[in-house]
Amino acid sequence: MPVVPTPLPCSAAHRVRIASVISPLKRVRPRVPFYELSAHRIPTLWTLYRGLLRHAPGENIWFRVRMLFRKNQHVVKAHSAKEQLVMGYKWLEFFKRAEQGDVKYREVLSRYERMIASKREKTALKMHILEAFKWEAKLRNRPIFKGSFIRPSFDNTLLPRLIPQPAHITGMLVRRRRAREHRWVQRETLKSWAHDLQCEDLFERELLKSARSEAVSVARRMKGKNLGDREHLLWVPVYTGHAKYEWSEPFLKRQAELKECMMRDISRFRAAPSARLLLQGKQARREKVANKTIQRQRERSGEVTAATIKRRRSAPPAHVRELMTPRQLLVDRAIREASEGGWSGAVKARMGVHMHMPEKWKAEGGWEDEEKKKLLDDMEREIRAENERRRKHSELDVAPFSG
User: Fold this and answer.
1) Cβ 333 vs Cβ 277: under 8 Å
2) Residues 6+ apart with CB under 8 A from 315
3) Residue 145's beta-bridge partner residues?
4) What is the rounded CA–CA span in Å between residue 226 and residue 215?
5) Helix 326-336, helix 342-351: angle, nearest 10
6) Is the peptide bond before 24 cis (omega within 30 degrees of 0)?
7) What pLDDT is attached to residue 177?
8) 163 pairs with which residues across the strands?
9) SS3 label, residue 355
10) Is the alpha carbon torsion for 179, 185, 191, 197 positive or negative?
């Protein structure tokens, strides 16, 4: 076997010199992330961040610095963090130069300040608009209590009927209904298990009686030896005696819990309504009537609301509409309008429709006052007479040329 020669002292010294030069250049991977090292946190927070805030030339730039640090505080990649830090130190130098009086840097930062201010105003305006849209959507979909109630049941007491109904109320009713169905299935299962346990108990009792009778008969044949008691002592009951209580105890306990749940459902169904809730229902119905009255007044004044459009678009059922004449369809359309004056009011009065101001259609035509009616009749006769005179005159002028 060849022997490895011992290196010369000069060679060993040369290796030591090479190791001393290379060792500081060797990359050392820390056992913790870079963002947890003090060598990174202390310079970044105390030198860079505080320096940028201290030398920021304006409030908007100060705000931008804070937002960028808050945005990049979760960067965990080393090269991405290095790029942001290089940019940060470049800004710090920029701020210091402007603070020392450099005109060019001051103008650039002034323009940057105005740009950030404009952007902040646009963002604030956008946020206000979004909040307004959210508030409008919330108002459109807010639950309204119109005075009606959800009848008491096993799932709920007397509840106000809200339109639209909140999701948590629907979820409560569905959850209780499913839980009651599950308890009913479990109750039937426990009843079947209790029946099986009772059958096993009866079978074991009959088996014990037959075993004792056989033991007594054998003991008599064996000249009075007491074998029956020995066999009885050696046999341990499984479903009778104390063992039966151990088997039935969890069944009874669970059945008592199910009965308690059922009694809570019954008490929920029989609970007396709250007097405060009933008063709120009455007040809601009064407000509903008042709102409908105001809405009809707005419609009569000429305003077109959603209810007006909906009533206009409504029509008789299809099988009835097919049998109606065009005149009947026109009358039906006039009856469904909100107007109580003019031709619509006259049609409604002739058809016997209830109107808030039944004489309005007469007042618009001047038929309510007898003097006005007589004046209009006289004017109509004069106009008709004048038209007849002009017609005859035109006929006399045309007659000679006809021959």
Assistant:
1) no
2) 321, 332
3) 162
4) 9
5) 100
6) no
7) 94
8) 144
9) coil
10) negative
Please say whether the beta carbons of 347 and 335 come within 8 A: yes
In angstroms, rounded to a whole number, what is the distance separating the alpha carbons of residues 355 and 47? 82
**Lookup: tokens for 338:** 């909100």
Place of tokens 């940028």: 52
**pLDDT category of residue 313 using cuts at 50, 70 and 90:** confident
CA distance 366 to 13: 129
What's the pLDDT band for 345 if we cut at 50, 70, 90?
Answer: confident
Orientation angle between helical segments 306-313 and 326-336, nearest 10 degrees: 160
Tokens of 160: 């106000």
Cβ atoms of 338 and 344 within 8 Å: the answer is no
Closest CA to 283 of 153, 122, 123, 145: 145
From CA 291, how far away is CA 285, in angstroms rounded? 10
DSSP reduced 3-state for 344: helix
Torsion angle of C-alpha atoms 44, 45, 50, 51, degrees rounded to 10: -20
pLDDT at 353 over 90: no
Cα three-residue angle 79-83-87, rounded to 5 degrees: 165
Amino acid in position 15: R
Contacts of 329 (CB under 8 A, 6+ apart): 321
Contact 227, 215 (CB under 8 A): yes
Token code pair at residue 255: 């059945």
CB 193 within 8 A of CB 255: no
DSSP-based three-state secondary structure for 144: strand
Q: Alpha carbon of 203 to those of 76, 199, 216, 217, 228: distances in Å?
A: 73, 6, 20, 21, 20
pTM recorded for the entire structure: 0.52
Percent of the chain predicted with pLDDT > 90: 45
Task: Round to the nearest angstrom and report the end-to-end CA distance of the chain.
Answer: 158
Tokens of 316: 């008789």
Question: Which DSSP letter does residue 166 get?
Answer: P
Residue (of 15, 107, 17, 18) closest to 57 by Cα position:
107
How many residues would you count in the chain? Answer: 403
- Give me the pLDDT at residue 208, please: 82
